[in-house]
Amino acid sequence: QHGHSEAVVTEAQQRHADVFSLEGKLALITGGGTGIGLAIAQCMAEAGATVVITGRREAVLQEAVATIGESAEYVVNDVTDLSAIDALVAEVEASYGPLDILVNNAGINLKKPALEVTDEDFSRILHTNLHSVFALTRACASRMMARQQGVILMISSMAAYYGIDRVVAYAASKSAVEGMVKVLASEFSGQGVRVNAIAPGFIETAMSRTAMNSDPDRRDRAMRRTPMGKFGQPNDIGHAAVFLSSDAARYITGASLPVDGGNSIGF
Ligand code: NDP
């Protein structure tokens, strides 16, 4: 046996691969053109899924689809346009088949001291990060429940749990998403649809790297709060998303999984 280079897959290895596989699944990933959403799309495609990514910028989506490869498609869509949500889901299913997985990843942040946050700021953050997430989830869940199967993932944040200065609207939106996960998981669990959240810690994306590099104090503070002593990579969220969407997680619903290098251990 030893010394052979040909790959022989044992039955046990195949069983292991099958349980984590997303072969034949269709996933819709909002904001899948950049950062964490793109990594989730890439990891899901590697696990065998067909992925449909959305976002507002067509050029960004085209480039992302070219990076991911053949099993990726895109639809230009602004999740805040609630009147377009039913049409988006109908279009995706008409073009690519029944949706198995929804990843609510699109999100925006705003860093301002609370007293400087305007009503318009607050509504904009809540509308994108919370109301749109609810509306798209409702549209997908009704279809998934009719088929008795589906997985819904929310990309939350550790800002839902901890007092991080200057993100009051963002923290409110993500805490609300965490609350919603439990209610939806409870209501949907009888009809084969699981609902979970991933709460990323400090993840190094192009944008967060620029922000951290331009503010060394903030970088040091974030590092001090991270027991593993390093920031996470987008793929760390991608792998967690694959796991939670796979049969390996078939008994997990209503959960929020921190992927944060230990931020959630506390002090
Ligand atoms: P990015 O800004 O790179 O990604 C956000 C994506 O969402 C973009 O592709 C953007 O595309 C899309 N998007 C924003 N608004 C809309 C909209 N109205 N309609 C459709 N798409 C939209 O940031 P990240 O990858 O870092 O963030 C992804 C998620 O992860 C967010 O929910 C964020 O809150 C969460 N998160 C990130 C952390 C980090 O450290 N990076 C930590 C914790 C949570 P476009 O502008 O083209 O529409």
From TrEMBL:
Residues 25-201 form the Ketoreductase domain. It comes from the Bacteria. Gene3D superfamilies: NAD(P)-binding Rossmann-like Domain (3.40.50.720). InterPro entries: KR_dom, NAD(P)-bd_dom_sf, Sc_DH/Rdtase_CS, SDR_fam. Belongs to the short-chain dehydrogenases/reductases (SDR) family. This is SDR family oxidoreductase. It comes from Hymenobacter monticola.
